[in-house]
Amino acid sequence: MSDGRVLRMGMIMLAGAVALGVGENGAAGQAGQAAAGQAAAFGPGNPFYAASTLPYQAPPFDKIKDTDFQPALEAGMAAQLKEVEAIANNPAPPTFDNTLVALEKSGQLYERVQEVFDGLTQANTNPTLDKVDEIESPKRAAHDDAIYLNEKLFQRVAAIYKQMDSLGLDAESRRLVDVYYKKFVHAGANLSAADKLKLKKLNEEESTLQNGFRQKLLAATKEAAFSTTDKSALKGLSDAELAAAAEAAKGRKMQGYVLPLQNTTQQPILMSLTDRATRQAVFEDSWNRTERGGANDTRETVVRLAKLRAEKGKLLGYPSFAAWTLEDQMAKTPEAAVKFMDALAPASAAKATEEGKDIQALVDSQKGGFQLQPWDWEFYSEQVRKARYDLDESQVKPYFEVWNVLQNGVFYAANQLYGITFKERKDIPVYHADVRVFEVFDADGKPLALWYCDYFKRDNKAGGAWMSNFVEQSKLLGTLPVIYNVANFPKPAAGEPALISFTDVTTMFHEFGHGLHGMFSNCEYPLISGTDVPRDFVEFPSQFNEHWASYPAVFDHFAKHYKTGEPMPAELAAKIRKAEKFNQGYLLTELLAAAELDMQWHTIPATASVDKPDAFEKDALEQKHLWLETVPPRYRSTYFQHIWSGGYAAGYYAYLWSEMLDDDAYQWFEDHGGMTRANGDRFRKMVLSRGNTEDLAKLYADWLGSEPSTGPMLKDRGLVEETK
Ligand SMILES: [Zn+2]
């Protein structure tokens, strides 16, 4: 699932800080001893001062020092603000060139430094960078506001927007006008002065509540962890798991054992715990973590946030917060997103129910003498999985050596589909010895992009995997893309091969799919180039690229034993494929339930008041036939961080929406001859090269020849019978 995977896009030009990352990455706060103090002077000695002279304007990592960032960030913001002021105060009447093209050209110094800074604070940070991040984050947010709330600038953009039809602009330029105008309006630029003040107050309160929610949830999750001094309650745990539980207790200055909670409802540790009473206790600790009364209960916060967001939607002129949020998304309206989810619900719930019956049969066969409960699911489904699929990771991994997978899998697939080739560049400076750089060439031999990979886990790297760019493609600026992929694969000891799981293989294809979306970008303007697309579209190219990992012609090309070069036995390969369909009814249902909850919370009218969040939650799910006793939502409302403080408000559906697009797209390939250059080139031309230069729903439908449908997604998850 894409939920755990991350795409962290660099801050796009101007205010487009689209925080697409999820998960627990917000640890920028550890104040280092080396406080950045007074910013040093900024001058030609700073490596960000001028554009890099390296190929593709690659960052000169051999020259960049930690102390260079703060002065460059501050000088970059100051320079852009000056440029923006000059555009806003230009005495000449507004034109496309003197306003929008000028805006697109502004902020190049800031762009240079922030792309590298954001890359390093995620992938290779240290206390000095963390401290700079802490100091600069609020200034950067204020910088973005200063641009999008500049009244004079908005008046110019609005004037151009209103006369757009008479300006003779090409389609991409029209799209730029449209995107800029809507960004300003979205931020509240059209409101009266009094309403702007109201919006500012709502935004401030929202920000405070979001922070409060995050802190309460963190504390509640810590506090609700199951603890015991009775080792026999933890039967089933491995020695390593027991040691970790003892360590966790020690860390909290407690006796015995502690099982820290994960952020989801279900807890992976339930897979191992044989004592049913312990399982129940752990599950209930998770389920009730934020509803125990006291300081860390989030019920009031959640209710107020939902109400406040409804008021905000209304103030901005929309029927709901979700309507305001979805306006610039591919789905466009909450109704479209809900219709999509509703269509998935029956097949999903039916499959989950069927899986539950399988588990109940297993419980009965073991003379369990009880009805299946949510805290039993992980434990027994793991037994079903072992019995049915018997897939042993240690058997599989020798066939997936990371560099072989890269060359003969990831690169090979891209070559077969798009004709591109790769050459390692050892002369390009890197920020860590583990990073490798490849130059990418088009089918005709022309230079296309630089691509970096930083695959191995480090203590100073955020969790998960992501893609971003150091340089964004733009014809206007004359830049080619410089892209990077980061992951957290286990690093082998010196001299040992890096053997990875099939999940990790899939992650490589996923992040490289984002990479292709960036590398193939062939756009004029940076604001709408490459992966700067709506949230419900951005995971489509990456998830689509995952399909090639198990495409037979690709899989057989890379799945070879690292020692002998023997291909993976067909039986083992078949097991991997079959195991991918396991437990999918459950997994889809818990996701759908969370996504429907998100949308229900964010479509309440401003006049409504919810006083019982639990009743609201139950009603919401019952209406959708997704209130299943044994399949709880992936997140309960009161600990649903994505939507209350993670930037995914009214946006959790996007994961599933993108999945519909990628499965549907893959089906198109299957129906048109599979992996061929013709199919690849058509996809590149009509989708991957286009960035956000056209309405995404239209772009997709033009390529596919119809609207997207959920059929292939249900088939891919094994929720409906295969038709062929
Ligand atoms: Zn992704």
Describe this structure in words.
The model is unreliable at 1-37 (pLDDT under 50). Helix content is 51%, strand content 6%. By secondary structure, the protein is mostly helical. It contains 27 helices and seven strands. The chain has helices at residues 69-88, 96-105, 108-123, 127-148, 151-162, 171-186, 193-223, 239-251, 276-287, 299-315, 321-326, 334-365, 374-389, 393-396, 402-418, 502-519, 535-538, 540-546, 552-558, 570-579, 584-601, 613-623, 641-645, 653-671, 677-688, 696-704, 711-716; strands at 226-228, 257-259, 421-424, 436-441, 447-456, 466-471, 482-489. It has a five-stranded mixed β-sheet. Strands 1-2 form a two-stranded antiparallel sheet. β4 (436-441) and β5 form a beta hairpin. The two termini are 25 Å apart. Bound molecules: zinc ion. Residues 2, 5, 7, 510, 514, 539, 542 line the site of zinc ion.
Rg (CA only): 26 Å
Low-confidence blocks of residues: 1-37
Count of alpha/pi helices: 27
End-to-end separation: 25 Å
- Strand fraction: 5-15%
Report strand order across the widest sheet: 3-4-5-7-6
Number of strands: 7
Average pLDDT value? 91
Bound molecules: zinc ion
Report the helical percentage.
40-55%
Q: Main beta sheet: strand number and arrangement? A: 5 strands, mixed
Helix-strand makeup class: mainly alpha
Name the overall outline: globular
